[in-house]
Q: What sequence folds into this?
């Protein structure tokens, strides 16, 4: 958590839009079925990329391949030029890549506070030998809770939160993680308009602070409202990758997207 | 000749293990209930058969009563113990502890009713004849092996050819799907328990006739069934059958090389290694995660 | 809820406080559940009969009462039970059984100066458990010394041993190894089995392959019966032999055990003494004329021994404590118990002749009595 | 009377250590081990051997027992890292059964079924401590110490990591938790602390053999944890006290036939286990019914998530 993150934090100021994650020819097949097929893509610092595509297009699989939760069948993934294929998920995470899950996967029996606190600790030792002090951590947790509107739920267990609160806790966790690249899996689905506005504001603030985001989303408002770039996935293949306007106006893609969903 | 003798004995032991293990595997595969009291069903069936024999009811009625007792026990466990637990929390361990508890109850109740010592049914079936120089086989051995074959074939036929059988196989994978097809998962679960428990009867009856009974018998039977189910691969009925035979053979053939007190260790060393090296079991497809 | 739990605990404490009687109480740590519970029933019938006789004769000023605790034949429950007997009930005298149990409770007996008397376990280690541990049963090493010459005399010199892998089994193995060469015999197979094994067809195959003239079975309870049955069922035709552990009713009536030889402490029922005759008559009256086993005799004797010692203490105006009982036993040369007049060795173990019995029609028939020194 | 309660107190303390340490991996790491008696046994044997041949001081016996148990616990950590759920239970069961054979056959170290006799009492302040009155404060103090250590661990960042892993392994991993290391440490800590109970047990009884370390003991300890309340601070202690007091209590029911009392105790113990699981699966010190309902709702959701996770990870 310590050295790399500091490095990552420093690098945030770099305006050159360097390539954080370089993906080349990424492949994944499940027993003959190709879930991800020859996908190449660069994720550049400060750019918000949205992954769109019909259900089953391989978007979540794509995330799992980056974070190491799935082993790739082929291709390379480089983080700041270093090959991270085959690394354990926790090592990849410690490089500065964090993610959320479609089904949230909160630490259900822990309180909101603990959920946020624990992502700031590598945790193999009962005490920390380096990194921020306990007081700094507490302050940061308080800050994150404040911003996500969970301050008065600090002692509530994650299980007992309402739906929107759970979504925000998922966001709070990733905010606390000090990661440089965020992979968000449908973070806004099912939110009411109010919460939704809060969510957008949060995301914009974080992006402004230098976080690079790759987001899976169906909601076209988000897609248009926040994306710098859209990548269109269908049946594991990257069909398009460009600025929102050109991708969304491609009639072929629209047909695939809406045709499949209708 | 010793190895031939031990192979034959191993097959006889294995046949008993195999059917009991198939019963456990069927229940576990379909309902994911860790039915530790399966050994208790075995003891219950064996003692009911014994009771029928001492009451002079004869062999066939004894077997029927034993089967009824085992099935009733299995279904009762499902309905009265497992279903209520699964209704609220249903963690795997809660079920296991409850099942273990009932196992203790059955062992002691049987002990109070039938006495805690050894009982046996005197029968010529258990007395060996000399097959060839130095090789003795009891008629019971052939019956055991035949029983394993017949019951297993019948079970396979049921699971593959009948509507209920196919639903049972699908139950573990997708209870939702079962509901969609208009079948009641609860009822199917009871059927799995009834069938699985009925499969202890051949083993129980032959143990009563062969090596004899005591109330603590269920423990060993259960552990072997469990080992066979895992070694064979959870969800693989055929795997449990083969693993049952393998464990029976291993237990006996190990005698050539090791003192017999290591034979149980051999069984569990196999179990431990299979879980570490090939968690899906020798014949399983499901993953361990 | 938490409050309720503590309330329940408090109730336990209250309850545990009651139950101090006026009777003279002694304890017994017997298996009452588990696979060896059958022994508990047998032991108890002997002990109860003695208590009945002692009370009928008013040997003691107050009635004698035996407090039974369950050991499950396992050391840990036995230690819990023993602690309860010596610390709560403060009994001076405890009946014990089983080698493992006896060893486990012996330290408690020694520490609390409570006499523990074994009438069932025959592991030779039991002779070495200190002053407060007595044996009213000759130990297994003596039994083997009686059986081996008997077998040899009848032309059976190749012996196979099937033994349970515990101190008892080990000691029988050692004794056979020591004694067979003396009569030109040989141990042709030694097959140990774990305590929990139930299936012996493989063992039977190995016994047959060894070509033994006789098979010595050293186990307990349900297991030894299963061994005998399965040996016979699986074509072992050699003579079967065992030790006093085989003298339980259900072992004797096993059809496959017919003709089996086993040793017991020699109890001379024909002895004309009053103690033996009264015991035999009353036991048979209560049990349809069945002959009592050696265990029943032993526990009868164990309780009777207490009665004799306690009576003497009362007469001398001394309190009945473990220490006084020990001193009294050491001061007394011999005791009139069932089977004749016996005396204790210095290590607290009874010396008694051993007899070889044969099972004929489901009952033990004495064949020969051997004096062991 | 007093001595009896003190004796009971000693046993409760010893079993409470076992229950608390098992709860540490069951309740906080989600590792449901049926092999806890193995480490109890290892501690007892190592403690006994050290006491008999090296020194009866707890400062020698306890560290030795802890080190050996910690090393051996790696055998349990191995399956814990590879498999979950029923597979891990079966693996731990296999380990337990193997250990029973080793305990009863390795006569040089364990004395076989015959066990080790005459284990010296603990020597402290120049006195032999074995009488319940002296031993109870010692055992209780050690139990409290173990309880404090595990509480501190649970409330440290390590404990949070452990709970996080239990609640969602994949999420914990995504936030940089080294699952293999954390799980292994938890198993090692639990086994090493369980060994402490073994040392006390051996010193107190002065006799140990394999029968105290069988599958039944493992299940008994597990039942203590579950009946008391998995993942709660005091639940395991309450469970241990309850399961040890109950049998004693039954023998005061005068109307029960004496020869059947053992069987009746066992029946009530078995029934108690089943009934508690049916009506109070969260344990006595568990959460209130309302919280349980929410838990159930959540359990369903978590189950859905798990199956997703299973699909994802199964393809590895």
A:
């Amino acid at each position: 958590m310590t050295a790399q993150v500091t490095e990552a934090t420093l690098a945030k100021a770099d305006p050159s839009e360097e390539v954080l994650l370089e993906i080349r020819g990424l492949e994944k097949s499940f027993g003959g079925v190709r879930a991800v097929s020859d996908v190449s893509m660069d994720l550049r610092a400060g750019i918000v990329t949205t992954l769109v595509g019909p259900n089953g297009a391989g978007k979540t699989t794509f995330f799992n391949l980056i974070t190491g939760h799935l082993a790739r069948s082929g291709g390379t993934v480089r983080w700041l030029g270093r090959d991270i294929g085959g690394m354990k998920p926790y090592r990849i995470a410690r490089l500065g890549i964090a993610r959320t899950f479609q089904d949230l996967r909160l630490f259900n029996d822990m309180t909101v506070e603990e959920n946020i606190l624990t992502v700031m600790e590598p945790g193999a030792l009962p005490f920390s030998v380096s990194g921020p002090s306990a007081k700094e951590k507490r302050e940061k947790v308080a800050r994150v809770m404040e911003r996500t509107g969970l301050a008065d739920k600090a002692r509530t267990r994650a299980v007992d939160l309402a739906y929107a609160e759970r979504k925000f806790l998922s966001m709070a966790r990733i905010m606390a993680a000090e990661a440089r690249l965020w992979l968000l899996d449908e973070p806004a689905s099912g939110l009411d308009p109010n919460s939704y506005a809060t969510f957008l504001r949060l995301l914009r603030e974080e992006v402004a602070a230098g976080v690079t985001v790759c987001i899976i989303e169906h909601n076209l408002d988000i897609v248009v409202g926040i994306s710098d770039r859209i990548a269109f996935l269908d049946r594991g293949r990257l069909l398009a990758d460009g600025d929102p306007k050109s991708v969304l106006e491609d009639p072929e893609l629209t047909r695939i997207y809406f045709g499949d969903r209708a | 000749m010793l190895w031939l003798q031990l192979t034959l004995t191993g097959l006889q032991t294995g046949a008993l293990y195999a059917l009991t293990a198939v019963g456990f595997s069927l229940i576990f595969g379909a309902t994911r209930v860790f039915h530790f009291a399966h050994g208790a069903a075995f003891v219950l069936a064996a003692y009911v058969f014994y009771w029928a024999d001492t009451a002079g009811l004869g062999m066939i009625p004894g077997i029927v009563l034993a089967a009824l007792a085992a099935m009733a026990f299995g279904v009762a466990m499902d309905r009265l113990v497992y279903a209520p637990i699964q209704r609220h929390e249903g963690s795997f361990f809660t079920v296991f502890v409850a099942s273990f508890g009932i196992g203790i109850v059955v062992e002691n109740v049987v002990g109070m009713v039938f006495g805690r010592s050894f009982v046996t049914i005197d029968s010529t079936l258990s007395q060996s004849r000399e097959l060839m120089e130095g090789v003795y086989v009891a008629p019971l051995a052939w019956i055991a092996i035949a029983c394993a074959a017949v019951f297993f074939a019948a079970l396979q036929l049921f699971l593959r050819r009948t509507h209920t059988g196919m639903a049972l196989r699908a139950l573990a994978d997708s209870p939702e799907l079962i509901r969609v097809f208009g079948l009641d998962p609860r009822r199917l679960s009871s059927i799995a328990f009834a069938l699985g428990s009925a499969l202890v009867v051949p083993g129980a009856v032959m143990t009563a006739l062969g090596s004899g009974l005591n109330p603590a018998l269920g423990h060993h039977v259960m552990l072997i069934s469990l080992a066979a189910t895992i070694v064979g691969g959870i969800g693989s009925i055929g795997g449990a059958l083969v693993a049952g035979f393998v464990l029976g053979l291993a237990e006996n053939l190990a005698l050539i090389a090791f003192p017999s007190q290591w034979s149980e260790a051999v069984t569990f060393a196999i179990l431990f290694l299979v879980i570490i090296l090939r968690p899906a079991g020798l014949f399983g497809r499901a993953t361990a995660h | 809820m938490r409050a309720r739990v503590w309330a329940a605990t408090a109730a336990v404490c209250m309850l545990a406080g009651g139950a101090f009687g006026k009777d003279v109480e002694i304890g017994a740590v017997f298996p009452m559940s588990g696979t060896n519970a059958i022994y508990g029933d047998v032991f108890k019938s002997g002990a109860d009969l003695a208590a009945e006789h002692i009370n009928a004769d008013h040997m003691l000023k107050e009635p004698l009462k035996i407090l039974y605790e369950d050991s499950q034949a396992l050391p840990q429950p036995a230690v819990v039970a023993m602690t309860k007997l010596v610390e709560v009930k403060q009994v001076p005298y405890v009946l014990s059984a089983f080698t493992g149990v006896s060893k486990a409770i012996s330290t408690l007996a020694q520490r609390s100066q409570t006499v523990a008397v074994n009438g069932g376990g025959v592991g030779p280690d039991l002779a070495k458990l200190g002053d407060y541990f007595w044996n009213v049963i000759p130990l297994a090493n003596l039994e083997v010394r009686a059986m081996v010459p008997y077998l040899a005399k009848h032309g059976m010199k190749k012996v196979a041993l099937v033994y349970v892998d515990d101190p008892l089994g080990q000691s029988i193995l050692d004794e056979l190894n020591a004694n067979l060469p003396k009569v030109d015999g040989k141990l042709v197979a030694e097959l140990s089995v774990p305590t929990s094994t139930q299936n012996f067809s493989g063992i039977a195959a190995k016994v047959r392959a060894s070509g033994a003239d006789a098979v010595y079975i050293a186990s307990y309870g349900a297991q030894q019966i299963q061994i005998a049955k399965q040996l016979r069922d699986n074509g072992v035709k050699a003579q079967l032999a065992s030790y006093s552990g085989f003298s339980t009713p259900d072992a004797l009536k096993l059809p496959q055990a017919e003709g089996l030889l086993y040793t017991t402490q020699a109890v001379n029922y024909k002895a004309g003494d009053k103690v033996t005759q009264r015991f035999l008559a009353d036991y048979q009256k209560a049990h349809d004329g069945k002959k009592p086993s050696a265990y029943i005799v032993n526990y009868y004797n164990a309780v009777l021994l207490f009665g004799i010692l306690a009576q003497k203490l009362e007469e001398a105006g001394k309190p009945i404590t473990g220490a006084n009982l020990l001193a009294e036993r050491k001061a007394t040369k011999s005791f009139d118990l069932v089977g004749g007049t016996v005396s204790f060795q210095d290590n607290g173990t009874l010396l008694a002749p051993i007899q070889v019995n044969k099972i004929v029609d489901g009952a033990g028939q004495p064949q020969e009595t051997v004096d062991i020194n | 009377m007093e001595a009896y309660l003190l004796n009971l107190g000693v046993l409760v303390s010893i079993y409470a250590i076992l229950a608390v340490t098992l709860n540490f991996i069951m309740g906080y790491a989600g590792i449901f081990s049926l092999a806890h008696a193995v480490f109890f046994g290892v501690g007892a044997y190592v403690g006994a051997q050290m006491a008999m041949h090296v020194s009866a001081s707890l400062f020698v016996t306890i560290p030795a027992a802890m080190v050996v148990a910690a090393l051996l616990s790696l055998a349990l950590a191995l399956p814990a890292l590879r498999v979950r759920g029923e597979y891990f239970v079966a693996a731990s069961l296999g380990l337990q059964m193997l250990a029973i054979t080793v305990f009863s056959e390795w006569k040089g170290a364990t004395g076989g079924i015959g066990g080790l006799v005459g284990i010296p009492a603990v020597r402290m302040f120049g006195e032999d401590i074995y009488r319940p009155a002296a031993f109870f404060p010692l055992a209780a103090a050690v139990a409290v110490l173990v309880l404090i250590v595990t509480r501190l661990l649970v409330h440290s960042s390590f404990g949070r990591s452990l709970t996080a892993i239990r609640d969602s392994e994949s999420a914990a991993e995504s936030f940089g938790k080294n699952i293999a290391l954390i799980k292994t440490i938890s198993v090692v800590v639990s086994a090493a602390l369980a060994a402490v109970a073994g040392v006390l047990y051996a010193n107190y009884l002065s006799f140990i053999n394999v029968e105290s370390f069988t599958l039944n003991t493992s299940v008994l300890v597990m039942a203590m944890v579950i009946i008391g309340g998995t993942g709660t601070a005091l639940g395991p202690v309450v469970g241990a006290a309850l399961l040890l007091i109950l049998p004693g209590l039954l023998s005061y029911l005068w109307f029960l036939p004496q020869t059947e009392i053992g069987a009746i105790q066992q029946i009530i113990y078995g029934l108690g286990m089943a009934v508690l699981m049916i009506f109070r699966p969260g344990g006595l010190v568990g959460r209130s019914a309302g919280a349980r309902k929410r838990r159930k709702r959540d359990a369903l959701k978590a189950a859905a998530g798990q199956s997703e996770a299973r699909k994802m990870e199964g393809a590895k």
